Amino acid sequence: MTKTPSVARSASEHHYDVPHLTSGSDIQMSPATSSTLESSSGKRSQMSGFTNHSDSTYEVATEQVTLPISSLPAAYAVIPTVSGNYTSSTLSHCGGFLNLSESGVSLLVPEGAVSRSRKQELFLSILNEDCFRPKLAEGLTQLSPVVSCGPNISLNKSVVLKIPHCAEITRNNWTISVLQSDCSDSQWQNAVTLGQETINTTVFCQLDKNAAYLVTENMSRYVIVGRSVTGNAIKRLKLAVFGPKLCFQSSLDYSVRVYVLEDTDSSMETVFGQEKRLGGYLLDEPRSITFQDGGQSLCVSLDNISEGWRAKTASNYQEIPFKHLWQASSNSLHCSFALEAFEINRVLNFKLKVNQKSFDYIQVFDVTCKDDGEIIEKTSSGKFVPKVSIHSETSRSNDSKRSVEYAKSAKRLEPLAKNLIVTDRGVSTCDDFNLRLSKPLRKQLCQCLDPPTQRGNDWRMLAHALTVDRYINFFATKPSPTDCILDLWEARNRDSNALTELKQIFTDMERFDAVTVLDNCLGPNWL
């Protein structure tokens, strides 16, 4: 017989009472920039340089972008300039799923969240424009994109919002907080700090290795931020190298741009859009590097430049100050190197080395560009695939893989066409999924697991088995703790074997009544 995991009982005798909710306290930060943006259609990106004592020069895009306002009920339903960062769907009481698959952001609206008599249009978007970044207090750093969902309507149940993050959480060196902005103004407030929850906390945050799952009834803007506990916290940064096509007919100069971004799937969207306007090409696969709290800058050096070429400014080394990365104000922070040809050499190769000062870990980009008219094999979206011959240590071993990577990056520059499905449940995109647990099945599972048992093998043990029991009292405040836990399970477990694993959990809990419910409702051949 499987040993039953031990679960500590809640100190409260009232597991299902819903307390009166109080508003969260303000955090120490300045108001964010207003979301009213000036039009700059047709303008070219303007770059401003910064120089520090280490002869470091890096640049931040300052172009303002017009963001059209959606026809959705809320005025803050801003449609980003990249269509892959926005989706909307009309949902009924049956619920649904809004998914920005390339960015790893999603919104699960469970059955019953929208009233039975209503159909509601909801949206989900990533706000990559710099003006939406929160201005953080000293020591705080942004760990996720700014995600907006809405409109801010009254819901009957909590939704589950998935937001990727770039914090290395394995060593428990972070104090993680979720900031929220109601969008009617530009103030950011602290919705929850992990480990400091109370029964009045309106947001539950399940922090997994690469993503946070927010369980909340408030449709709003959210962002994940963190503060180093011991001064040793680590976040992941993404490095991306861009440059123009090498062409001696037009210029003897060559500019290389090295972007340093938060390491999330959506962080490259702004850069691809900017480089598209500049005529730039991705010179190598984007790579990740760890960046530790403590004040050390990021070092970027240009080495092994091929014969006939040299650094134009006689400087091939730059440093980006720690604070400008830990408290970045831009989604397209980068440094640039200018090269010039002093004799005709139609091949340019160089190595870019990036590391945090005083740390051994280093990322190396080995790039070769040829002015020979070679064209990389095009794909269906090959309009933006580089037309220069570009090689690196990685790509030489697998050229086909490189072509696929370029194709993926090119796709992100194209509008994403989506088919719509119109049913009695409303209108949704084709990447919508069906909830694994039907309403009758859920009801029976809740009847099994909601009542507290002396052995503790009820909803509390289920939360423990699913590793969502960090703040168990959040579920205790819900009318049905089991139902809320299963909503979170739906959002976190999308693998094909999820139901099989859930059945095994019920077996380990020795809740064979729940196992029988699954078998009876799903049939004998569902495994």
TrEMBL record:
SUPFAM superfamilies in the cross-refs: DEATH domain
CDD domains, per database record: Death_UNC5-like
Coarse class of the protein's main subcellular location: membrane
Cited InterPro entries: DEATH-like_dom_sf (IPR011029), Death_dom (IPR000488), UNC5A-D (IPR037936), UPA (IPR033772), ZU5_dom (IPR000906)
Gene3D superfamilies the record matches: 2.60.220.30, Death Domain, Fas (1.10.533.10)
Low complexity biased stretches: 30-45
Matching SMART domains: DEATH, ZU5
GO cellular component terms, semicolon-separated: membrane
The UniProt record lists the keyword Nucleotidyltransferase: no
Transcription regulation listed as a keyword: no
All copies of domain ZU5, residue ranges: 85-219
Region (Disordered): 1-53
Top-level division of the source organism's lineage: Eukaryota
Alphabetical list of PROSITE patterns matching this protein: ZU5
Topology relative to the membrane: Single-pass membrane protein
GO biological process: motor neuron axon guidance
Location in the cell: Membrane
GO MF assignments: netrin receptor activity
Keywords attached to this entry: Membrane, Transmembrane, Transmembrane helix
Family, similarity comment: Belongs to the unc-5 family.
Name listed for the protein in its UniProt record: ZU5 domain-containing protein
Species the sequence originates in: Callosobruchus maculatus (Southern cowpea weevil)
